[in-house]
Design a protein that fits this description.
The structure is a homodimer. Chain A has about 200 residues and is an alpha/beta fold. Chain A is built from 8 helices and 6 strands, in the order H-H-H-E-E-H-E-H-E-H-E-H-E-H. Chain A folds into 2 domains: about 50 residues, Helicase, Ruva Protein, domain 3 (Orthogonal Bundle); about 90 residues, Dna Topoisomerase Vi A Subunit, Chain: A, domain 2. In chain A, the strands form 2 sheets. The first copy, chain A, has a 4-stranded parallel sheet. The longest helix of chain A is centred in the first third of the chain and has 18 residues. Chain A is globular and about 60 Å long.
């Protein structure tokens, strides 16, 4: 029988994605055993992030300032704007270290099922940013899902008439991927987009 | 690119058992989105547990007092002492709500490989508790592993000569278990311990 403070900590931990009641209990025991190295620093880090984290008013990235570090970095004013669904996708792009422009985080995708319309996402702001920041290329880095592709089409309509190049990520065989394990759609896309060797 | 405070939070979260870098990132984004409902309460709960959690000096359970709630509960002075490896096992026993006695948490098992000897565990204290608390039965609820069984034998030697009944948990087919999926050892144990129907 755990103490009530420990019980509430377990209950809160179990609400994290990827953790259930069992792994939450295991995590809490681990935290208590590693109090100095892990529990206290983690509590402090959470309190700090809780007090300072905020959405960038320009792009929707999460940072600690009103305008995030990417939006204020002059070296990233390349005229390229990468549109992503979520902050997790922005982080994934940044880890690849290949994109040097700025981002625009939609905050999700359009979804008829979940009743998410363009006004629920950061879509109207894209046109504003094109006009204000001198964007020459919009890279649609959205998921290869129905909702992701619907969203891409809506954005294309939205920026239609502006002098801006619209591109999307290539589809094909993932690096390290084996054909045997790929779905038909990916193989079709990879074949259609085949390149001379 | 996440902010450095967010980066350190992710790095700390990734050190929890069951979470890797990817799931830590996902958890942190979730926390930031649910700041009021989850991030702040979790930071508070961690700080509270970090400040108050301690090992019971009597049994090794984790609580907030010098002697835990189970050890101070007079209704649990049944003369039965359940010896478990870890606090997680104590919690598992408590969830079954069937055991009404008290516990003794060893803090691990003896292990020649990891150089864990009897003096590293809470083994000598068992004999002391028998003398002090009037224990009539020791239930060895240790894992059915080599190390668990070695530990059980060492404890048996330790309490030898005292007027105390020594029992272990029954081995057999788990409730809901299918024979087809059981290992040979479990089937052998279940057959040897068969009961009249």
């Amino acid at each position: 029988m755990a103490d009530s403070d420990i019980e509430s900590l377990i209950e809160l931990m179990a609400r994290l994605p990827g953790l259930g009641p069992r792994s939450a209990r295991r995590a809490v025991l681990h935290l208590i055993k590693k109090r100095g190295q892990l529990l206290t620093p983690l509590a402090d880090a959470m309190a700090k992030v809780g007090a300072t984290a905020r959405e960038c008013v320009n792009c929707g990235n999460i940072g600690t300032e009103e305008i995030c570090a990417i939006c204020t970095d002059d070296r990233r004013a390349t005229g390229e704007l990468c549109v992503v669904e979520d902050v997790a996708d922005l982080w994934a792009m940044e880890r690849s270290k290949i994109f040097k422009g700025r981002y625009h985080v939609l905050g999700g995708t359009l979804s008829a099922l979940d009743q998410v319309g363009p006004e629920d996402l950061r879509i109207p702001q894209i046109a504003e940013r094109i006009d204000r920041e001198g964007i020459s290329e919009i890279i649609l880095a959205l998921g290869a899902t129905i909702d992701g592709q619907t969203t891409a089409h809506v954005i294309a309509d939205e920026v239609d008439g502006r002098d801006v190049r619209l591109t999307t990520l290539a589809q094909g065989v993932p690096v390290g991927g084996e054909l045997d394990y790929l779905d038909d759609g990916t193989i079709t896309a990879a074949l259609n987009a085949r390149k001379s060797f």
